[in-house]
Design brief:
- The protein has 441 residues and is mainly beta.
- The chain folds into four domains: 2-152, Jelly Rolls (Sandwich); 161-241, Sandwich (Immunoglobulin-like), CATH 2.60.40; 245-399, Jelly Rolls (Sandwich), CATH 2.60.120.260; 402-441, no CATH class.
- The chain is built from two helices and 29 strands.
- The strands form five sheets. Strands 18, 19, 20, 21, 22, 23, 24, 25 and 26 form a nine-stranded antiparallel β-sheet that branches.
- The termini are far apart.
- The structure holds calcium ion (2 copies).
């Protein structure tokens, strides 16, 4: 009995010391709180579990939930983690004696988007033992419902988490890519003004960041690290190309696809146009039946391919492939000047699995990339039984720069040589020919 009594004293002393602590949720059963409500189970709102929730009786206004913190606490922050059935109008009052109430917060006519349903209210610092939620109008027909109702004394905001993300993953050399920075404090609440963001770009020389805008200086990838003081954001990778996506056609009728594996007339997405429409939302399903049977190795081993005619010669600096989850386990990308002699520029063989991903092929991975007119993607094995699916296939290039046209022989004197769209054209009797003597329409 004596032991029990001493324990009780120690426990009380610990709780008193706790009362002024910052960044501690006082409204938890684990911290000595309890609750009652006009309907529903209010303890589910103070159990530190965002998987359980208080839900008041459906269709009835008003409703009240009162939390007894167990002892007077000093606090300045109320955080409500709403379920979809939030309150359009509500008020919060506090009391030392559960008899005399002081209003501390009134919210009227609010509309909360799903991402706004962890709602934080800063109030004048107050000391109270009881805190009462009073819902007067429901947003939906159901009841009032929240997962957690939290009460804190928020200390000085300290930058704890930094997030950095680019507007897009791919930009042209010299074009800005805005980086969004989100600062969060020790309670996970957004904050501002924690300091200046410093950036590190790897490899050095890939590009520069000014005023939170990344501008690539050359083709390739860059890993960008953002930090404020010693708080670092998770680094992100972006890619840069030069020129334009010269594989993209303006519409389905003007698709640059000139040949492809068999097209299933019943399956529109089977048309490779969808791989080169410069639309990252449309999908090419490079499989006659959309799917490849039971998914065993034999069923996944088939050719899915297409050829695009870029329409002129280009120096290609990047091939950028956006695979859907059903990607290719084995494929190659080939270049040609004349649609007859092909060179393989890139070969992939790996265990792609179910993995939507980007493959940026550039630099040393891109071979024989000068004077390219025809580009071919050729998959020989699908990664899964769901076929080979591609959001988009982009070929970035600059018109071939022909510097010395005097070296190109013109067999007859009345032929003239001009450069059009980056390629050498020979004009004879008003008809244009390419350097291989083929008539250009
Ligand atoms: Ca809960
Ligand atoms: Ca597409």
């Amino acid at each position: 009995m004596k032991h029990l009594f001493i324990s009780f004293i120690l426990c009380s002393l610990t709780l008193s010391a706790f009362a002024q602590e910052t960044d501690v949720n006082f409204a938890l059963t684990a911290n000595g709180a309890t609750a009652i409500a006009t309907s529903g189970n209010p303890l589910l709102a103070i159990d530190d579990n965002t998987g359980t929730r208080w839900e008041s009786e459906h269709g009835v206004d008003p409703q009240t939930l009162t939390i007894d913190l167990g002892q007077p606490r000093t606090f300045n922050t109320i955080q409500i983690v709403w379920e979809g059935a939030y309150a359009k109008d509500f008020a919060v009052s506090t009391s030392l004696d559960n008899a005399t109430w002081t209003p501390v917060l009134t919210v009227e006519d609010q509309y909360l988007l799903p991402e706004e349903r962890t709602q934080t209210h800063f109030i004048d610092q107050t000391t109270a033992r009881y805190i009462q939620f009073h819902g007067t109008e429901r947003a939906l027909d159901y009841g009032y419902s929240f997962y957690e109702f939290r009460v804190y004394l928020t200390g000085t905001s300290t930058l704890t988490t930094l997030e950095a993300k680019p507007a897009v993953n791919l930009t042209k050399v010299g074009e800005g890519n805005t980086i969004t920075i989100i600062q969060k404090d020790q309670n996970g609440l957004p904050m501002e003004g924690a300091g200046e963001v410093t950036y590190t770009v790897l490899p050095a020389g890939a590009g520069t960041v000014t005023n939170n805008i990344y501008t690539p200086a050359k083709v390739g990838s860059a890993l960008i690290k953002a930090a404020i003081g010693d708080v670092e954001a998770t680094p992100f990778e972006v890619f840069a190309y030069d020129g334009e996506n010269v594989a993209a056609g303006s519409d389905k009728e003007n698709s640059k696809v000139i040949a492809q594996s068999d097209i299933n007339p019943e399956l529109d997405a089977n048309n490779a146009y969808y791989a080169v429409d410069n639309n990252d939302a449309t999908i090419w399903q490079g499989c006659y039946n959309g799917e490849a049977g039971d998914g065993d190795e034999a069923a996944r081993t088939y050719d899915a391919w297409f050829t695009v005619d870029l329409g002129a010669y280009y120096d290609v600096n990047m091939v950028y492939i956006l695979f859907e989850g059903a990607s290719s386990q084995m494929y190659h990308v080939d270049f040609s000047e004349d649609n007859a002699a092909w060179t393989t520029t890139y070969t992939y063989e790996g265990n792609a699995g179910i993995n939507a991903h980007t493959r940026a092929i550039y630099g040393d991975d891109l071979k024989n990339a000068s004077k390219v007119r025809y580009v071919r993607f050729w998959s020989t094995k699908a990664a899964t039984q769901w076929g080979v699916k591609m959001f988009d296939f982009k070929v970035f290039g600059l018109p071939l720069q022909v510097t010395d046209i005097s070296s190109v022989a013109t067999p007859e004197n009345h032929m003239t040589k001009v450069i059009e769209n980056g390629q050498l054209i020979i004009i004879h009797n008003g008809v244009k020919y390419d350097v291989n003597g083929r008539m250009i329409k």
